[in-house]
Q: What sequence folds into this?
């Protein structure tokens, strides 16, 4: 039963009014937070090239407005992970929110496509074309056009960046190397750039681990720079490059080697070495630098 002010003392009525004001204010704050905060959507695309449904997560910044056009980052996961890894383990939503809110990074759309899974012997892993799994073609011919149309983002080189960790770090490097006209920046974290020290296991039916190892070597980011023509080197100079690898990372030497190759060929790029290994703690810290690097304010 509610009492109107005529049934209360002046003190009770005053207290009741104050409580109502606080309640209205609290509701207004809740509504504001609920309607303007960033969000992550899970979507899927039916790929004709892969003959499969591919899921992906999309980060939409606080205040996302479909009437505007946003820069887009393609954020790639590592070997054995899925499209959920950057959200569930990489803390990317909070990192992106803080980078944008602080003014360090521009409001952007971040796309995290699936390219693997933990059952590596039977699940396709990797960002390159393999026998029966043309993922590279799928990414550029199907995923990228659909995402950018749906979310009003990208569309031109200066509005598109690619980055990732480990297998995704190598994938992002190779994508930017082979499509320098499409990406303004590449940020590779602990990148897996080649697997030349291993070979595909013998037999007519190698498992999918062997296939992805072979694909990484066939698409070696190191060999690409090592054998680059003058025209190719010119095109690579149009991309801003950043290699970020921990001093305890088992892939450390590959990042150093790529940086050396780029230096000798006068292809500008950043190399940062911090204390750390092949861990999510390291990659979360790297992402704080990567997002502002993608599209400088």
A:
């Amino acid at each position: 039963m509610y009492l109107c002010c005529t049934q209360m003392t002046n003190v009770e009525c005053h207290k009741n009014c104050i409580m109502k004001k606080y309640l209205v204010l609290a509701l207004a704050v809740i509504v504001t937070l609920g309607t303007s905060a960033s969000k992550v959507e899970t979507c899927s695309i039916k790929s004709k090239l892969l003959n499969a449904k591919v899921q992906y997560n999309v980060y939409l910044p606080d205040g996302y407005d479909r009437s505007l056009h946003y820069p887009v980052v393609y954020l790639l996961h590592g070997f054995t992970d899925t499209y959920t890894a950057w959200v569930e383990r990489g803390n990317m939503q909070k990192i992106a929110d803080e980078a944008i809110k602080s003014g360090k990074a521009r409001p952007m759309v971040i796309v995290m496509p699936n390219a693997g899974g933990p059952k590596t012997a039977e699940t396709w892993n990797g960002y390159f074309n393999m026998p029966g799994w043309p993922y590279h073609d799928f990414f550029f011919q199907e995923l990228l056009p659909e995402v950018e149309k749906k979310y009003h983002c990208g569309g031109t080189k200066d509005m598109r960046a690619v980055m990732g960790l480990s297998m995704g770090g190598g994938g992002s490097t190779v994508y930017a190397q082979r499509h320098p006209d499409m990406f303004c920046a590449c940020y590779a974290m602990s990148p897996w750039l080649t697997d030349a020290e291993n070979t595909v296991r013998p037999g007519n039916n190698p498992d999918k681990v062997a296939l992805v190892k072979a694909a990484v070597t066939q698409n070696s980011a190191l060999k690409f720079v090592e054998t680059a023509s003058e025209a190719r080197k010119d095109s690579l100079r149009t991309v801003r490059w950043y290699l970020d690898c921990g001093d305890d990372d088992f892939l450390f030497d590959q990042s150093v080697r790529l940086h050396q190759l780029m230096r000798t060929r006068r292809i500008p790029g950043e190399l940062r070495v911090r204390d750390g290994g092949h861990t999510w703690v390291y990659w979360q810290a790297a992402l704080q630098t990567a997002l502002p690097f993608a599209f400088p304010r």
About this structure: DSSP finds ten helices and ten strands in the chain.
